[in-house]
Amino acid sequence: MIKGVEMAISMAEFVSRCYQCGTCSGVCPKARVKPGFLPRRIVHENITGFSSRAVSSGAGWDCLTCGICQKKCPMKVEFLEMFLSMRKEMSNGAGVPCKLAHENFLGSSFYNIMKNEKIKPKRKHLLAKDVKISDTSEVLYFTGCLPYLDIIFKDDVGFEGMEIANNTIRLLNAVGVEPAVLDEEKCCGHDQLWRGDLKTFEELGVQNKNLVKYKTIVTSCPECLRTLAVDYKERLGITLNVKHISEFLVDKAAKLAPNGKKAITFHDSCRLGRYMQTYEQPRELLKSMGYEIKEMARNREDSLCCSISAWVNCDDENKELRRRKLDEAIATDAEILVTPCPKCQIHLKCLQVDKSEPGRKIRIADLSTVLAENLKR
Q1: What is the pTM of this model?
Q2: pLDDT per position as a tens digit, 216-264
Q3: Which of the residues 24, 89, 137, 152 could staple to 94 if both were Cys, CB 3.0 to 4.6 A apart?
């Protein structure tokens, strides 16, 4: 598991073990599509006293935070902590401002509304009529930002949104769990943390401190999983027992009726895979329900990132990475590209609906949706 961040340490300390082998630049997907972007160079600037130059260049926003450089580094250099430190400085006014995708919807205004303690979201009324929840359950389903992303992207790119939430609860119901759902739940703060806005992240986290009363928290979002399980503990001192829906269901698969006979391919999202080491549980679930898994050329810890994290930088280089990801999926001859991360689905479907990108036809569906399609309603 990739360590949490500690911004008090200097950027040079994070990367002081580097001996400039260049492995990071060799495996970096962004380095392959953006001329001049080399993690090795940025590390060198930090350990040779030129960290201000690295910050002012804006290169900190180009990083995908996919974590493959840190995973492959023979010296275990903490690249992610370095980039987070750079982003903290840049978000405080140093260097190039953050370039956000969908700024009008998912910029600072959204999070300023979300962190307002007087704002009380309402989620339960958005759920489907057939799902069963219980206010007294020891298991909480953390819906995250699915209701908001559904509004923004459902008509735009065909995002499943609330269907992911409903299907996750249907799966829980199928194994005998009626989870609690909190109206007052706030965003986990993942995006603000990874944009370097620690203040907003901490404000959101404090408002979620009531989550400690639940024995288990289940989420269908790997970003929520990482944030609640790791970052809340390391940065806020809030210890939670959090599981991705695939982790929660994998030892209960016998209660799910196998019915799938389609060939699928599975996308290992960065947060679920390289960050949380959850590779086999989703595959075991899919196999138990009869699906044939056709692996992409790059899978598990070598999986290619969907190209955007925390809505930072949606540019031509990132678009090229999405092309490569979809081309890998299509090359497997699978009928469905299964994603365990809602945002990965948004980014990949965004390319599919782009009229300048014809021909990339493969169904993209969330893991919870594919599994729930086998349940008898």
Answers
A1: 0.91
A2: 999 999 999 999 999 999 999 999 999 999 999 999 987 877 776 789 9
A3: 89
Strand pairing report for 263-266 and 292-293: parallel
Dihedral (Cα; 303, 306, 311, 312), 10-degree rounding: 70
CA dihedral of 341, 63, 230, 252, whole degrees rounded to 10: 20
Q: In the 3-class helix/strand/coil scheme, how is 119-143 assigned residue by residue? A: CCCCCHHHCCCCCCCCCCCCEEEEC
Report the alpha-carbon distance of residue 70 to residue 68 in Å, rounded: 5
The topology (CATH level 3) of 11-91 is Fumarate Reductase Iron-sulfur Protein; Chain B, domain 2 (1.10.1060)
- For residue 74, count CB atoms less than 10 angstroms from its CB and return exposed for 0-12, middle for 13-18, buried for 19 or more: exposed
**Cα–Cα distance measured from residue 105 to residue 299, given in angstroms and rounded to the nearest whole number:** 32
Q: Would you list the DSSP string of 234-292? A: III-----EEEHHHHHGGGGGGSPP----EEEE---TIIIIIT---HHHHHHHHHTTPE
CA–CA separation, 170 vs 167, rounded Å? 5
Give the per-residue pLDDT at 3. Answer: 40
Residue 364 three-state SS: strand
DSSP β-ladder status, 139-142 and 216-219: parallel
Whole-number Å distance between alpha carbons of 79 and 82: 5
Q: How far apart are CA 42 and CA 138, in angstroms?
A: 46
What gap in Å lies between CA 322 and CA 68, rounded to an integer?
A: 16
Write out pLDDT tens, residues 96-137: 777 776 665 666 667 777 777 877 778 888 999 999 999 999
Domain boundaries defined on the chain: 11-91, 103-249, 260-372
CATH number of 260-372: 3.40.50
DSSP 8-class letter at 33: T
- The yes-or-no verdict on residue 50 having pLDDT over 90 is no
Phi (first) and psi of residue 232, to 5 degrees: -65, -40
pLDDT bracket for residue 60 (50, 70, 90): confident
